[in-house]
Amino acid sequence: MVIVVFHALASAFLYLRDRLLMVCQSPRLADRNFSNDCDTGSGTSQHRHFDNDSGCFRWRTSPRHTIDILKDAFLPILDATNVSELREAAYSSLVQCLPRVERLQVFLKNPVTNETEADGVPLPKRGILWNTIHQSKIRVCPVPPEPDPLLGILQLRPSDPYKVLLLPISSRQSDCSLGIIVGCFKSSDSLSIEEEKCLNVLLKQISVAYFAVRRPQLDTVTDNSRLESLISLCGELHDQDAATLELKVIRYLREQTRAESGFLLLVVPETLELISQVVGNTILPEEVRFHGLWSCFKPALETKQPLFLEHIPQDQRKEVEKIVQMKVENFLCVPVARKGSEDLIALACLVNKCKGEQFSETDIQIVLQCFKYTSTVLASTLAFQNERKLKNQTQALLQVAKKLFTHLDDLTKLLREIMQEARNLTDSERCSVFLLDQDSDELVATVFDGITTNNKEVQSEIRLPKTQGIAGHVATTGTLLNIKDAYSHPLFYRGIDDSTGFRTRNILCFPIKDEDGVVLGVAQLCNKKTGTYFTTFDEDIASAFAVYCCISISHSLMYKKVIDIQTRNSLANELMMFHMKQIPLSEVQELAQEGTPKVTVFHKDFDKFSFPPRAIQESRTPGACQAMFEDLGFTTRWRLKPDTLARFLLMVKKGYRNPPYHNWMHAFSVAHFGYLSIKNLHLTNHLDDIELFALFVSCLCHDIDHRGTTNSFQVKSQSVLAALYSSEGSVMERHHLAQSMCILNTEGSNIFENLSSKEYQQMLDLMKDIILATDVAHHLRIFDLLEDMARDGYDKNDPKCHDLLLCLLMTAADLSDQTKTWDNTKHTAVLIYQEFFSQGDLEKALGESPLEMMDREKACVPDLQISFLDNIAIPVYVVLADLFEEATEVKENVENNRMHWVHKATMLKQYNNSKTMSVQEIIALGEDVSSSKEDATGTEEKMETSQHNGR
């Protein structure tokens, strides 16, 4: 009989298993007909009643056949549609299988919370229940002692005559526990083998049914829970701050995907820059920007497909770890597109799923579902934030404009203000501003930012060719240049970095243009402090800032022109007072009607290098100038009117003041040397007619209105001339040129009146270059070029050779007093040092320390003269002699004069009291010895007149 019963039981179990496989796909596939198929007859009635004594449900049934009991026990389990119903069915099924069990409690795992519970009461995590739930065998044991939680669950005392029945429910797919059923029966009873087998079948049936109802319930609960969370998230996205909004979205994604950390990388569509403002639960103090195509996120940006950790090369994974500041075990990056567009708005990144799990397709769908409802809000918030940022920048620009326009009176201060504000607006380390010099086509920087090489003082200015470097490229093209890696750019010159120790990482260089698009200058920013490079937003703000720069610089330059005009007017008034008396017409007529004498009238050696022009009386010098104009052919070639030439010469003579040295006689001496050079060096074979004409006129005009002081003194004393010309350099030389132009523009004095417009413009340009060449600083700048020309030979067809030769001839003429005999040169030295010492006295009165050569108490004249001859004069005449053999005589005279100064220095050391001796006394030392020395060397100078006209 037992064999038959178990055979029937096994058949029923196999049949029910097949039906339950269908239930696993859909619990509702089981229908009520199933019970009819299994029903073999009516059974005894059964009901459940509540036992007030025990507080548990008790089942009362009549004895029935085992197979009928098993059949009826399966029916409630098959009808269960959720875990709660399955728990009730387990009550019913167990009572039918084992009617004598009392005080039943069924603990099943909640699929949502993963907690094992019975009607909301969690399973205690200690005692006999907790020890048994992880086992797979049915257990019968005595009532446990205090304080086991089972006593409270079954309402038992340790002394009660009961046995405890423990039925653990295990998963068929794994060893994990699904729950446990606990009850009790009289201690006098026992569990038969048949009953135990029946219970095992029932427990397996409950396990199968659990998985059948768990998945739909879990999916429904999870979907509903996620939808509720998403709705709650959307309700919270009311912030106008993108970072706060990102924080909430990241928190939601982390909770739903069970990720340890996460972050959003906002995408700038135009440049594919990535911006991070929030990582995990932290809003970053400064946003992090980097170029997406240069990072490990490049595949996600290009393909717009999810990116997992295995897709990132091993050497690039540190980029993610650097962002999240943790070890990355697994990673998911989901590109999120803007609604209605293919452009990406962000990359949603999740890091390290809990319990070492891997991110799956479900996690991707969670992210996409989230942004399906939040991307619009995120895009709107970002747009609002950008507009707010733009508004703040606009207000900042207005404040910048206010600051800039308060410095229009001082271009240097204005440029410093521009540099400072540019740094502030773009968060950069350094800024340089170059203005374009239209005359020289050079970029000029006069204000500097940062350290200098070897801790030296900053230079007065830096000049760069317009076509050189990054600044030159921007000035030439007029377009902004944003360089993300300076050292990799071909236009960047890293020599300055190497010498200063400064490291240039990135550069933003933008043009400063006027309303017509003409480039006025260039501003160059270095090293973005709050990012790895300058952004497109920096480019926009720089372009807007450039407009204010242009307006302020243009107005500053215009303001300076106005001030210059006022200064010129002031200077003109001064000159008018000085030259109140006009040239009398009678003097002009007298000079013009005398006729032009021959140069030999003034001296038979007038056209020789050895002749000293200071030997001619000052009153006769205008006539001598007329004679030189005539002898050189200028009068005829350029159709000079006698009265115009006479008035011009008298005006030039009157334009000179009376300092000891730089007076009219100096100008006459310089013009005489120019005349000698044209005649004796045969310059007509080397220079054009108009160049020779310009050279001779420039010699006459080169020191008009000289004040007997140097350029540096004009600047130190803040004179009117310095205010007018110091920004251009060569203060006095520019003043001499300006006064020459004034004379030429005076009615009846323009000796260039018969030149064509082209020749007239060329003449003025030549005079400017030649007169400015008298600045010693200019001469020293070009001296290497002069030596090169002397070595390589003069090329008449090369315009540069023409320019260099004119400058050389002008300098040689300006120093020509050193080319005369010692008797003439020594007296000129007295005049020079008289003028120098006068300036030194003025500097002392101003509280300045004069140079040694201008300090009468410190100057050692012989040593100073030797130094001057060695460093300035002799090199000039050596180059001249190399170019023209006829100039050898001039060079030898200068070298002979140096020998005299060496002798004076030797004599002076014997007296050892140079500080108490005047220049005249120093020159008079050992004159007899000097004369005998001159005779011994065979250098004899015979002059018919020794009268020198030096005032």
UniProtKB/TrEMBL annotation:
The active site is at H662. It is an enzyme of class 3 (hydrolase). InterPro entries: GAF, GAF-like_dom_sf, HD/PDEase_dom, PDEase, PDEase_catalytic_dom, PDEase_catalytic_dom_sf, PDEase_CS. Residues 584-908 form the PDEase domain. It comes from the Eukaryota. One of its GO terms (biological process) is signal transduction. AMP binds at H662, N663, W664, M665, H666, D703, D814, Q865. Pfam families: GAF, PDEase_I. GO terms for molecular function: 3',5'-cyclic-nucleotide phosphodiesterase activity; metal ion binding. Residues 928-951 are annotated as: Disordered. Residues 930-945 have a biased composition (Basic and acidic residues). Binds 2 divalent metal cations per subunit. Site 1 may preferentially bind zinc ions, while site 2 has a preference for magnesium and/or manganese ions. Zn(2+) 1 binds at H666, H702, D703, D814. Its cofactor is a divalent metal cation. Gene3D superfamilies: 3'5'-cyclic nucleotide phosphodiesterase, catalytic domain (1.10.1300.10), 3.30.450.40. Keywords: cGMP, Hydrolase, Metal-binding. Its EC number is 3.1.4.-. Zn(2+) 2 binds at D703. Belongs to the cyclic nucleotide phosphodiesterase family. This is Phosphodiesterase.
